Amino acid sequence: MELLEAWLTLRSAAGVSDGTIGKLIRHFGGPREVLSASPGELRQAAGRDLPADALRTPPDRESADYIRRTMRRVEKGECAVVTMLDAAYPGRLAMIASPPPLLYVRGTLPPPEAPAVAIVGTRRPTPAGAIVTQDLSRDLAGMGFTIVSGMARGIDAAAHRGALAAEAGTVAVLGCGVDRTYPPEHASLLREIAATGAVVSELPLGAPPLPHHFPLRNRIVSGWSLGVIVAEAGEQSGALITARFALEQNREVFAVPGAVRQGHHRGAHALIKQGAKLVESADDVVEELLPQLDEPFRNRVKSVAVDTPAPAVTADEQHVLELFNGEPVSVDEVLARVSLDCAEVMNILLGLELKGMLKQVPGSCYIRR
User: Fold this and answer.
1) What's residue 308's pLDDT?
2) pTM of the full structure
3) Residue 259, Cβ density class (10 Å: 0-12 exposed, 13-18 middle, ≥19 buried)
4) Nearest residue to 227 via CA among 355, 361, 118
5) Which terminus, N or C, of the chain has the lesser number of Cβ atoms within 10 Å?
6) Which top CATH class is 315-368?
7) pLDDT grade, residue 306 (50/70/90)?
8) Would you say 269 and 257 are in contact if contact means Cβ atoms under 8 Å apart?
9) Which alpha helices (H) appear in 175-281, and where do they start and end?
10) How many angstroms separate the CA atoms of 15 and 46, rounded?
11) Domain chopping of the chain, boundaries
């Protein structure tokens, strides 16, 4: 626990950025060595602008109380603290410009080199967007990818639920302390994620969900991953911030297309115009990421693809299926476009739903899966 105390003390130093802490840690080898270095040694390692006095001054009363409380909670098993020097620290996250020195964790982190894909998007998705996201997440998680997202309403929650549906772990990166629940309606989802995957934040325990915390969270979501999928996003969506971080971090950027006249797809379409890979299925993501995967994982992905052939459909089912292009279609629209009676159409829609090719959504509509 002495080492943890040194990390928390270092992290509490006023005016010392994540990038500077990383530089000092790499130079001196650990937090205790940093804290015991002289002002001259500190400035030589990190530059003349370093507030060396802050590192030489003991924590104030408030910070000291926080450090003691955090250490007690870690001892009780309420959370863990993973540092940038720990073997469990995510490998790709360690390579970004200013990796967080500490990660507070509830649950179990995936192996540090486990291939991960981030899925982000609007907080107010269409029914189609939520379903496509959940299916995409489920398929990628079923192949072995760790799904990373930001626990927000809408697309983020659908991404986490898709991974859970595949009985796979998922990583939720919070814009508040890991002991907080935000948004509040995600309490049960948060518990599910912590039980099988990990809930993570670089923010101290008790930190509230303040607006400036979320861009910090977004850089972790993208930095953790091989690539970022924007599933559905408007022109002002925060998901585009995550995509920009991904580009800065040399990660792949993917976007799911949608109806051209609907504003909630414009952000994703803008990314496609700028060169993002268009995604219609998990295979599109795998195709782009395959060169970055090691041979055992590539073989696993290929075996999953071989083991899951598309279900057989009749000629009438295929005819009806072709009416669905990613947006909800009502039963009345189907009846108007096929030469079949209502009973036949309902039987076909039910059959396609049972085969996992269509899903019913509100308003007597169906959407292609």
Assistant:
1) 54
2) 0.85
3) middle
4) 118
5) N
6) mainly alpha
7) very low
8) yes
9) 187-196, 213-223, 239-248, 266-273
10) 13
11) 2-65, 116-307, 315-368
Measured CA to CA in angstroms, residue 302 lies from 136, 143, 295 at distances of 17, 9, 11
Q: Report the pLDDT value the prediction gives residue 190, as an integer from 0 to 100.
A: 96
The answer to whether the CB of 215 falls within 8 A of the CB of 237 is no
What is the Cα Rg of the chain in Å? 24
Q: Kindly give the interhelix angle for 266-273 and 239-248, rounded to the nearest 10 degrees.
A: 20
For 116-307, CATH number out of 3.40.640.10, 3.40.50.450, 3.30.930.10, 3.40.630.30 equals 3.40.50.450
* CATH 1.10.1740 holds for 2-65: no
Confidence of residue 310 (pLDDT cuts 50, 70, 90): low
Owner of token pair 């909630």: 264
**Rounded to an integer, what distance in angstroms lies between the CA atom of residue 181 and that of residue 178?**
8
- In this predicted structure, the answer to whether residue 219 has a pLDDT above a threshold of 80 is yes
pLDDT at 54: 83
- Those residues whose C-beta lies under 8 Å from the C-beta of residue 228, and which sit 6 or more positions away, are 117, 118, 119, 120, 221, 222, 242, 243, 245, 246, 251, 252, 253, 254
- Report helix angle 2-11 to 61-75, nearest 10: 140
Q: Determine the Cα–Cα distance for residues 176 and 211; give it in Å rounded to an integer.
A: 10
Tens digit of pLDDT for each residue in 44-92?
A: 888 878 888 888 888 989 999 999 999 999 999 999 999 999 999 999 9
- Taking alpha carbons only, the member of 258, 220, 63, 236 closest to residue 228 is 220
Alpha helices in 109-238, H assignment, sequence order: 127-143, 155-165, 187-196, 213-223
Q: Of 191, 203, 192, give the one whose Cα is nearest residue 70.
A: 203
DSSP classification of residue 367? E
| Residue range 145-163, pLDDT digits in tens | 999 999 999 999 999 999 9
Three-state SS for 163? helix
CA 36 distance to own-chain centroid: 37
Single-letter amino acid, residue 256: V
